[in-house]
Fold each of these.
Amino acid sequence: MPSDLASSTSPRRRRLAAALAAFLTALASTAQEPAAETLRLSLDEAIVMALETNLALAVERLTPAIRQTAEDEAQAVFDPVVNADATARRERLERRGADGRFRHVDQDSLAVSGAISRHLPSGTTLTAGAEASVNDASTGGQESAGGLYVGATQALLRGRSVAANLARIREARLLTAQSEHEVRAVIEAIAADVEDTYWDLALAERRIAIYTESLKVAEQYLRETRERIAAGTAAEIELYAAEAEIPLRRQGLISADGAMKISRLRLLRLINPAGDAFWDRAIDLTDQPQAPAMDPDPVADHVALALARRPDLAQARLQIDLQDVELVRTRDGLLPRLDAFINLGKTGYARAFPQALWNLGTHDTYAVTAGLTYEYALGNREARASQRRAVLGQEQAEAALANLAQLIELDVRTAYVKVASTHEQVAASAATCRLRQETLRAETEKSRVGKSTSFLVAQAQRDLLASQIVEVEAVVELLHALTTLYRLESSLLERRGIALGDLPRD
């Protein structure tokens, strides 16, 4: 009877063995790529490579340079401005002659002028210029004029404040500083993502190794079960429980292989290695997940570090500074415009243009103009609305800063608890794994002497497999928790020995 059962199951065993062999061959071929294509990576090397070549970071690094162009644009308000114009004109007029009759008179004129002006942060506008003109009539009369002039306009109310006049420049600089903190936040996020993905890939590879070893154990037990059935020391029904473990292990192996391939692709995307076909490159991880020695600092130290270093908190503080600048600018807008001006000019006249220029220096002629200009919008609703918006914006920025600081402390404290919890789980899962291993050994020995069943052995194998997976998952979970804590307190780069000044800048 045992031989009949063995012969009836042999075709299925052959099919199962063939399928398993094909899968393992494909798995091996995936891992055994040419040596030149295999990328050996430690965790630190992966982080440094990502920070040098990651495309998302390359995009973000351009932001400060783009923001700096706004600084130049704001400063351009105080650049000197040169203007010039030239006008030629011809007109035909009717004039009464000495005999009382009207006659046509053609008159040509040419006028040129040029000036330079500059607006100063003090609210002063300085202007200097020159002008010349020539009028020639068909009656034979010609008149020429040449002149020089200087002028100054000083804002007495609106536009007088240096702080208000420089507000746009300061705003542009604060926005540039904000963008630099944004870049740091992206750098830290990418470094943390690389770490998490690196350990996910290591976890997937470890799962493959565990499932492969578990599959070998299940196959060995299946062979022993068949031998005991053939020898008549075990019931035929024991074979089904032993056979059922093979596809179960194979299913876990396939899932682990899929997870490994996905993690490999994600890591390749993050580090962006050189070459067009980098998606097919194999990765050889030189660091394996191990639980680090734990001597945690007090949680208050981590919170204080986060409140001092977090880039998003620095951005929130800069936002308050931006609102302060906006308050200064809009407060100036509430004032009416009252400007004092003075213009000094001197003009020389003659029939010929060169003589007009000569007369400019010899004739005692001049022109002085001085006065005040006043402007005020009745109700001044636009300026009042801008000022009110700036006040509310400042209140909102201060409230947002307090809220963000509270959220950061919550995140850090939560991550701290997570680290402590996962560290305890590592020790507990290791102890469970050792006990499950002893349980499997005992059940296997009992089964060999007929005191246990294949079902109990299979159950012990599954328990050991699960505990092995949980053990390595606990270690990786601890590494993830530490990475999260260091990222939340903005110390991840320093803990990995990376200084932002060492990174490439665009």
Amino acid sequence: MTSETVILLGFNAIKMAIKISAIPLLAAMITGLIISILQASTQINEMTLSFIPKILSVIITILIFGSWMLRTFVEYMVSLLNQIPFMLGS
């Protein structure tokens, strides 16, 4: 196994992690932005007010996109496990 192979494996793992986590993170960011705009317009400065909507939006996002996220992770792991004999042979 060469250093290029290790770098490629690390790059693919990071790319897959970003791809999977992007949707829940975007949902939390958008929810936080909406709550912040509402807080600014109503002049309510409660820091804990945005916590529950963010958690709910992330949970709903995972419920909706969870099967895709799991399928993406499983496909990556299967391809990684299928590459092991070729990595050991070289």
Amino acid sequence: MALPLAKPAEAGAWDQTAGQGLLISSFSYYQVGVQGYNQFGRPTGKGTYIQEEFSPYLEYGLTDRWTIGLQPRLQAITQSGLPGTGHAYGLVQLNLFARYQIYRDDNNAFAAQGQIGVPGTASVRVPQLAMPSGEYEARLLYGHNLTLAGVPAYLDVEAAYRLESDGYADQIRGDATLGVTPFQNWQILAQSFNTISVGHAVPGQSDYDLYRVELSAVYSITKALAVQVGAWHDVGGRNIALGNAGVAALWWRF
């Protein structure tokens, strides 16, 4: 049973068919005016933070029920007026995941996913670029095909618990994607990404909430190749700097 629309840019409830995969090579440019807390949710001064990130996302159908994948996050950071002012670059984190298709029919899909975040290699000049330790996440996913005003669409909702091992507060994550195909070869994605910290962090470490929305368009050049352009906006949060970003990506199905 084939999903009639392209899947969300992140892991969705619909697993890949055995022997098939998806590569999304995405680049984002994120800018923040820091007013007391940095991007890690740590107390800091005031200044400017610019983050350029290349994060290729790869998933592959190991079987018709199991999908495996990875996503390295490479960043170049420029910050001013803050502790550690300067430029840094490197591998922030490598995410490895496996997703299991619990149930699927023509209109619905349920899946469960486990993910490990492997810390990257920090820049010598600004060590806090990389995640200091590992992260472990359990996620449940639900997808539903629907029609909006006669237009094919789908909804993907996800809930996760992320366990931190570095003194950060653990996190509850809730994400949602609405995908609509208004015209042939075009897809509009409206997405929401939400993070709520739970428990207590080690004093001086990350403890924040963040609410982010993203809107993008995906154009299919061929059945295998598509391009995506969009932007995200941090609409609210606690103990964290809020910013905006532009996003561009190239999708390849194989």
Amino acid sequence: MAEIVVRPMEVKGQSQEPVRVFCENGANLLQALLDAGIFVDNACSGKGICGKCKVKVLKGSLSETSETEKKVLKEQELADGIRLSCLAEVTGDVEIALLQKERKHKVLTGGYIPEFQKDEHESGYGVAIDIGTTTVVTALIELSTGKEIANASMINAQKHFGLDVLTRITYEYENPKTGVRELQEAIVKSINAMLSEVCQEAGVRRRCIREIDVAANCTMMHMLLGVDARSIGRAPYKPEFLSARTLPAREIGIEAAEDTVLYCLPQVSAYIGADIVAGAYVCEMQKAKGNVLFIDIGTNGEIVLASKGKLLCCSCAAGPALEGMNISSGMRATEGAVEDVEISEEGITLKVIGDQTPVGICGSGILAVLRELLKSGIVKKTGVFVKKDKLAETDYRYPMIRMNGTKREFILKEKPELLITQGDVRQVQLAKGAILSGFTALCNKAGIQMEELDRVMIAGQFGAHLPADSLTGTGILPKAVEDKLVYVGNSSKTGAYMTLMSDRIKREMEELAEQMEYMELAETENYERIFTECMIFPS
């Protein structure tokens, strides 16, 4: 048995006691920390790719530094005793320091709510929940008034099994006997913690909760109900169920009264889940006149187009760059993340979440940087950095670019160092190409031009913090629709609230899911050509 002494990241003016963790000799360090409830960012789920799980060895030793670590870590980091915890084994007692603190996430809890007729209730309470891959949002509702009397949000406890749905599905593959149960227990644990929080805040007893309504993506819905999600991760990508589900909340471990009902909203396909059905309903896509586009931008960009009486939808694999992952200085939208940027002859101005010292760049910040790099001519429409030797030394852009061997990098900030590399630009370029190609393919199928869109509804955590000029300045959307953008906030939670308050809306949302026609982009005619063209940035 080995002891790991874990020292939290030092925070000015705060003193924190070390945490002691015990594990078997030979145990994986990252897994030992996660098992003890210590959060360590691991975007690649322990594959040694993302480089986010760094720790510093203060005393004792770990297994020999691997060749992968030597490639991922800088020479100075290796000299300072920095290790990737996912690739290190505990060989005896060791003392380490965390290089990150669990920061407060910027979580979207509200949004647009259309007017609707509520059912009559004399008493009791209900709960509306939006389960996202990253965050879970809960609202406690007084049924007699429809008023939200308390809300809570937290990071999805499944983060320990991976930061995206595919790595969590992979966990089920790798742990066929226990994976489904472990993932269900994690999300139910999050829900129970938030129910305790909202009930305590409002002074409401749990036994007074009559119904809990949940909107989530298809994978999260499977994992909540303890249904094997592996079929979602392999061709032909067929979920085990798509219809709405009603069951006793206690059946899956939610700590509620015996008669509390759990209602799970309907879905369309493996990658168009109940969260998108909820969003489409909230935005009244089923009643839309003209051409209306709805998108929830994230790792997967889910898109719905209402045109000529039809509802077409698709999902495009934007990748994690727009959530700050797979970016050299990337991070999630937490305190200390750069969320907006301005580049001018006067220099570089940063807007940082929480007005903290910048420590990384979140998704909206990545797009803002690229918008400014394109506007200033530092990056060309092909996505390539301008050559430094083509700039005069008196050019304000000259000191912003540096050579790292033969590669060009943009210096966003020197201390602490925040860089944008050619690889970062490519990651955003791929995301932009995926999203725009989804828009284009849907418009092509509907027989309309992008400029003919009457409204573009943007939902979700990422979209809410995204200025219109970042979307059009990077070419994700054409300039022609910039004044047609409407931000609707957390439409997934709003949809769960509406079904909670109206049985009629439950039925209508189930009908809407049946009407939505899913389109597989990979099977679309000339899709590769469309995608390639959509990767070009605006000039």
